[in-house]
Amino acid sequence: MLEILYQDEYIIAINKPSGLLVHKSFYARDAKVYAIQELRNQIGGQHVYPVHRLDRKTSGVLLFALDKKVLKIMNDRFATREVEKKYLAILRGWSPEELTIDYDLTNDDSIIQNAITYFHRLQTTEIELAFNNKPTSRYCLVEAIPETGRMHQLRKHFKHIFHPILGSRPHGCNKQNKLWLEHFELKGMMLHAHQLIFNHPITNEPLILNAKINEEFSRVGTILNLDLNTYE
């Protein structure tokens, strides 16, 4: 059963589990379960229309429209940046306290697109995990707010500033990912869409939707001695 965060006659939002595809994809033809179909079955067969996307390995708030009129309204609001998306990520190393990454990305059609991400660091940590001839490893928890919505934007942007998201494959640190797989059996990615802020498409009422972190994110937080109580 999917966790429903909000539902009325116009929109519905879920806390998407990590590993669940939003819909069928050429890049993941092995998948047989999709958020669209699972949610539709759960609410009695009603059609649902995803307003935005989350990567397969990204968990968190995922919003659907319940008819095409509402879908268009919300698509327009996303396009004009009237919707704010906030993500939690665990990064390798200690990032700057805050930074706006303005770095163009190239999509699958070789088209260069402007991409902007603002983030601020929430916590830093260092654990006894030998890496690159050093006895310890450093990590940090950040909140990221993408101003644009390019494919794999956060993963690519954090890799660009040499603080890749832990568990990101690709666009991550292969050596760190191997280290965490061997020591902690980590197969997931530490990226979670924890909050979506927007005005309701019909009533214009301000909405703030929050999604709790999953067990894997919480487990990694415990290993790293991060305080994640606010997000659990």
UniProtKB/TrEMBL annotation:
InterPro entries: PsdUridine_synth_cat_dom_sf, PsdUridine_synth_RluA-like_CS, PsdUridine_synth_RsuA/RluA, RluA_PseudoU_synthase. It is an enzyme of class 5 (isomerase). GO terms for biological process: enzyme-directed rRNA pseudouridine synthesis; tRNA processing. Residues 11-160 form the Pseudouridine synthase RsuA/RluA-like domain. Keywords: Isomerase, tRNA processing. It comes from the Bacteria. It catalyses: uridine(65) in tRNA = pseudouridine(65) in tRNA. One of its GO terms (molecular function) is RNA binding. Responsible for synthesis of pseudouridine from uracil-65 in transfer RNAs. This is tRNA pseudouridine synthase C. It comes from Flavobacterium psychrolimnae.
